[in-house]
Specification:
Blueprint lengths: L6 E7 L5 E6 L5 H19 L9 E8 L2 E7 L5 E7 L11 H12 L28 H13 L6
Antiparallel strand pairs: 1-2, 1-5, 3-4, 4-5
């Protein structure tokens, strides 16, 4: 019987390809999962650019590297989600991992008291999501941790 998926990292990336949140659950492998997130952007861009507009938000398996399988999802607002799971024989459906993450991000952004007021040096580089690392986004990080625990692993 296949093992349930084990969440190793989650990356949320803005429409301008700026990292919003990269949360790793493996100590000492932070740089590895930053690399996974950034290389996944190339695959996501390759799949979403073209003559036909993709109708499905869930991009499925993006690629496999060593012991990590990277899955992708792009929201209607073009926020990209990269989910790094431990490589197993289990089938990953979007309802298992991706939809709870999408709902966590949606709830965090829908907070009427949250000011998305990221300030950048240039107007072209402006992304309100860049302030996700601030203390205002504790709830999003907490919800990502809860999803990680729900998949059967413990947070470091």
């Amino acid at each position: 019987m296949p093992q349930p998926p084990r969440l190793n990292a989650v990356a949320l990336i803005s429409p301008q390809n700026h990292p919003i949140l990269i949360r790793t659950f493996q100590k000492g492998d932070e740089l590895k999962y930053h690399y996974v997130a950034h290389t996944s952007l190339d695959v996501i861009e390759e799949r979403t650019s073209g003559k036909t507009k993709p109708t499905e938000c869930y991009l499925g398996l993006l690629y496999v590297m060593d012991d990590v399988a990277a899955y992708g999802y792009i929201t209607p607002l073009k926020v990209k989600m990269v989910i790094a799971l431990a490589l197993t024989d289990s089938v990953v459906r979007d309802a298992d991992v991706v939809m709870p993450l999408h709902m966590a991000f949606y709830q965090a952004v829908s907070n009427p008291f949250l000011k998305l007021d990221g300030v950048s040096d240039s107007v072209a580089d402006y992304s309100p999501y860049q302030v996700v690392g601030s203390a205002k986004w504790k709830r999003l990080r907490r919800m990502v941790d809860e999803i990680h625990r729900a998949l059967g692993a413990s947070t470091p």
